[in-house]
Amino acid sequence: WVDDEQRATRSAVALYDQTSFGKLLVKGRDAEAVLQWLCTADVAVPVDRTVYTGVLNERGTYEADVTLTRLAHDEYLWVTSSASVVRDADWIARHVRPEQQVSVTDVTGAFAVLGVMGPNARALLQSVSRADLSGEAFPFGSSREIDLGTSTVRATRITYVGELGWELYVPAEFAVGVFELLTTVGRDFGLVNAGYYAINCLRLEKGYRAFGPELNPDYNPVEAGLLFAVKLKTDIPFVGRACVEQAKEQGVRRRLVSFALADPDVMMWGGELLLRDGAGTGQVTSAAFGTTVGSCVGLAYVWHPAGDIVTNEYLQSSQWSINVNGEAMSATVQLGPLYDPRSERIRS
Question: I need a labelling partner for 189 at 20 to 30 A (CA). Which of 21, 60, 63, 235 fits?
Fold first, then answer.
């Protein structure tokens, strides 16, 4: 079933119920200032833009991994993992100074989230909406309200599976109607209902990180390979900035890599030992069977046994394997994603 869901996502279109993602409404006069201080990315974006960002502590390591959509000059939608809503709301509230005006409201239950993902996603949605969903009119990272049949929903062009797609934020009272509309019309576009196992497989082929296994208070953005989501090219201060700058300047002794097993019959679940030339020098954080790649894939942190900096040469001049049930299984290791490394499919 999961294989079929992955194939449909890569070749046609799949519908994902992502309603369990946590959603916080951050609103008030000082919403931008508070979030600019908390977030690694620059959140001073136009209304109807979405930003992917980390949230760090003073040590420069992760406390959250979220997307922010600016709904108005004083209002943002904070989307986080399912288990992080209370934690994130508390983190924001603890960083609002007494003189600042910001409210944080949990609106998780107010909206269903339906992910329409795959190369046929645009054609499917365009068939039931008058909005212009072309790449020019609705580029990646855009978010706006559109009509969908008889409903109005917020469509955000973003993906966690590495394909062209939109996340639809649907008022709860319209969720059943929108779902029925999409599944009925979707038959003509090869639509398949898909779930979180498929999301996990697809995000690992694309090298997308997750809060918990890859991003947590043990790791910083340099180690995690996420400096593209850090505003170091600006002079904007944020929590943990000094530590991130130091890590970038000095180099890191751990790096997150993507891997794929050579044997397609071997399955992994995460936590396994990564071996460099037979010696343990890393640990798998997440693993799943990637149908497109054709083997088990995942992410792992690699370190240097002598405590030296982990360089590209260190990764490339080695034979890598993973201890699976006591047997060393050959693997390929690389810094970039295994699938669509230039992200051409999501920006089409």
Answer: 21
How far apart, in Å, are the Cα atoms of 246 and each of 109, 257, 262, 283? 41, 21, 37, 24
Burial (Cβ within 10 Å: 0-12, 13-18, ≥19) of residue 249 = exposed
Report if pTM > 0.90: yes
Q: What is the Cα–Cα distance from 155 to 170, expressed in whole angstroms?
A: 9
189-203 exposure pattern, b = at least 16 Cβ within 10 A, e = fewer: bebbebeeebbbbbb
CB-based burial label for 33 (10 Å; 0-12, 13-18, 19+): middle
What phi, psi does 154 have (nearest 5°)?
-95, 120
Q: How far is residue 228's CA from residue 251's CA, in Å, rounded to a whole number?
A: 16
What amino acid occupies position 140? F
Structure tokens at 303: 């370190």
Residues in the chain: 348
| Residue type at position 92 | I
pLDDT digits (tens, 9 = 90+) for 95-136: 999 999 999 999 999 999 999 999 999 999 999 999 999 999
Q: Is 144 exposed, middle or buried (0-12, 13-18, 19+ CB in 10 A)?
A: middle
